[in-house]
Amino acid sequence: MNEETFKNAIVVPFLRSVGFDESELVFESTFTIQLGRSRHTVTGKAHGRLDILCKRDGNNLLIAELKAPSERVDTNAARQAISYARLLEPMAPFVLISNGHKSHLFNTLTSEQIEQVDRQGSYRPDIDTDLRLRYEALLSFVGYSLDNLIAFSTIQRQRAMRPFEAASGDAIRSQLTKKFIPALSVERTEALERVHHFVREARQPILACIGPSGCGKTVLACQLPAALPAPTLFYSGTLLGESLLSEIAFDFNLTFSAQESDISILRKVTALTRAHQKHFIIIIDAIDEWRANNKSTQLDRLSAVAAQLGLKVILTCKDEHWPQFLTERGISRPLAEHLDVPILQLGTFTQAERSDAISRATAFLNLKPENGRVTDNEALRHPFTLRVVTEIAANDGVPLGSVHSSSRLVLQRFLELSLAKTSPPSLGQRVLVALAHRLLSQSSFHCTIDVLRQDLGLTLLDDLPNEIFLSGLLLRHADNSGIEYVTFYHSHIRDYVIAIMIGRLSTSESSARKRWISIHSGSSPGIDAVLYFAATGTQDEQRDTLEAFAEGEATRDGEAIARLLSWGVGIFSRDILEGVADRLLSRLFAAFERAAHDDGGVRAHRIVDAICRLVSIDGAERTLVAMVELIARSANSVGLGMHQVADALVAFDSPECTARLVTILRDPKVDGYVRRYVATAVERRTFEGRTELFLGLVMDADPNVLSWIRSWYPALETSSLRDRLLEIHDTAKTSYVAKEVCKLLALSRLQDTGHALFVRLDLSKNQGWLCRAIAELDYRPATQRLISLLRNDPFSNLGGDVMIAMSEMPSVEFVSPLIDLVTTGAKRLLDARSNYWLAQALANSATKEHLHDLAKYLHTAEDDDLSYCLGLTMLFANDEHLLDTVLEALVDDKFGKHGDALLAWLPVVGQRSLSERQLQLLERRLRMRKSVMALIVVGTRMNDGIWLAKLVREVLPSATDDVKGEIGWNQDVRPKLRAELDDWAASRLLDASSSDASVRRLLELIPWIGGRRSLEALRIADVHLARATSHEWVARTEHALYRALADDERQSLVHSDSRNRIA
């Protein structure tokens, strides 16, 4: 007899005979359990199959688990049946197990076998017992299959993501109302790899994904659940209520945990997943938009719970708001202590991601084919911009490449399409205009929702249309005190609304347009809107813009004019600029006078920068010279951008201005820093008495001046002038003057100058610099004398000068004494800081055979100092095989404590590119040593911006040294560095958990790797950045980045011959 026959022939008739009617017997091959607010059906033998459920008075009384006569009725069978009974609602108090030969009745609450039933007793357990038993049942039940917990998380995610995720079966128009459209979603490979690493290996429980508005954080958050191999819940900060843990508990309110606390639920669920070697993951998108007053405190609590229970939490946040979750009054919050680092920083698309996104959009929206290569459009690397352009192209039935990403028409069409999704559309437009008005009036980029409600005349019962947020027009967020704010999603939308919809600048008459610009250019949103208007405007609109700036009261301090010219000078044609140049220059000079001592000269620097951009305009030279005269009289001349002024003055040569500059140069009362730049400015100008002025400056007491007139000498040189310098050398009362004269004479083109210096070698106390000048003049008769001087005292300052001379005048005769020094005196030379000179001299004079013998010697050398000298020599030889040898030795740590110092000399290998193998070896060393200075110096000769950007990301966050000196990277690589690193750098600036040392390193690099996002981040995060450095440091960095971006933009405009682009 099988199990089914046993049930139908024996058990069912028996149950009927003892009083159960048909309505009280339920025959099920499956049963359901409550999962959150949904019910999930458990099917199949592996999940849970009960044979008969007996009810009495509508309540579950007994389940009968029947076995075939050949199966045993044992403890395992009883445990399985009892776990089923405990999961029912209400819990069935009895379990019957039978195989026809043997039957047992069990108490569901105690798991004990029942010999006699107390018919009068209560079968309901107390609350504690109920919860404990249901928890044990859950562990037992899901122990057979984790699919049940995954089913719950799937149901929860579908519901939570519904406001954001488009259904694939819906019409395209309906799908476009959602942020996450699976058909359009590009896989962000690096971001996904970072998340997978976090889930698999991270010890800390929290991963933060931060980035600017529109970079795809929500899309990534919606993609993650399907990509993660673990049960995952999803919550949106935009829609979260007051309590996150209460929301989780409510969604997890299964029948087996109806009365439990949120922490108890998480403890049980994580125990369950841990038993199956899985993680339980919670994703919270847009925490900055969460309305809870105490959201930072709640996230602190969640991070502590997650750390204790092994829960994994992934957060997303806009980078400008991220610092508020990390610190409170300068003290790190608990969330910061539980963060996995580095933070996941999401930015623009890579080139491959952009191409994929365009391909997906073309197919999904059935876009018209392109005639050109639209994938080269850098603007389309921004996810939001690409989304806007593709929607417009689809709606208007035009090719993607024909939609200009910065034109007014694009934003107008996008607003029309977006506002059409709000109900009614007129309310959406009213909200945008009211918000823009408010931002303009309070010179801010956000305002409180209560203020916006008041401006709109809404009551407390009226809400702003949610579609205006979901469509990407506006964003809302709440601060730690619970005050809700609203801002524009994208700056160009804000600029368009202010300039076109509020200012009506495109339709106003000239006088009204200029009046509006004059009034509103003093505010930050106002100047941004005007710049946008000018960049996308006609010549008449641009002319009116400049006229307004030249006349307006709001631009009296020069700051707005400086911003206009620095960021937007490439927008305006020469004809337009010349019409208002005099008035602009007058305004700027007056502002410069007032700003000379403000905020460390930062504003003065900006004004100088703006004037320097008008060098092609009449009147610019006179203004610049007047600024030099003002700086010369200033007690604070060092910080006023004199080098910028001097560089700009090089382009001019008017007699009047030249005479004024020469007067300044002659005046010993003027600071030498100022006069050295004046020397640069007048070097190529025409004026009388240049030789006499030169000789007078040679004797000047300020070393700054003499150093900067050295370049004058070759053009002035005559025999009489040379002899006069020799006299000055012979009679010099200070070694400094004698040294500087040697430097001048080393530039001589007269044949007998070398001999004239050589005969003075044994008569002068200035032997070292005489040796160097003789060598630079390639005076070969001095060869043996140099060898003699080196052998007599190689470890003195004179010995170092002789080695420098040998490197300037290579000779095979130098090789033997230099090798002797390498093999016997390397350590002493290192102490005397002559190792570089020795290596350079030997590399320049040695033959290939000598050098390869030294390479063999390196393999056996056991002394770090000796190895270092040998390594330097091989680097300076500029030989492919020797470079391989040095790099391999670096990776093997052959140079010990000198490895980083040697690495810093790698750029001297020459202008050639490194091979793939050499780059790999170099990467390994940089990752191993984490030296920012090594990275900086290595980057000096690198033209591969992507390679350098990758190393900056990896090395900078964990570097152990500080930046020293200026960064001399190739200017050509800077645009690529900005494109690759701007979002990353901005996120790092906003990370308040960074150490002071890492902040200092980052600020030094920002002018090279930062862009517009970084500039915004500097302004947002100035408080915590200044705490790590100083306010002056942050201000200097902001100005340096400001200038660099303006320079790059100007070059870009020149190369592209385009007047419709703005930084």
TrEMBL record:
This one is known as Uncharacterized protein
Q: Which organism is it from?
A: Labilithrix luteola
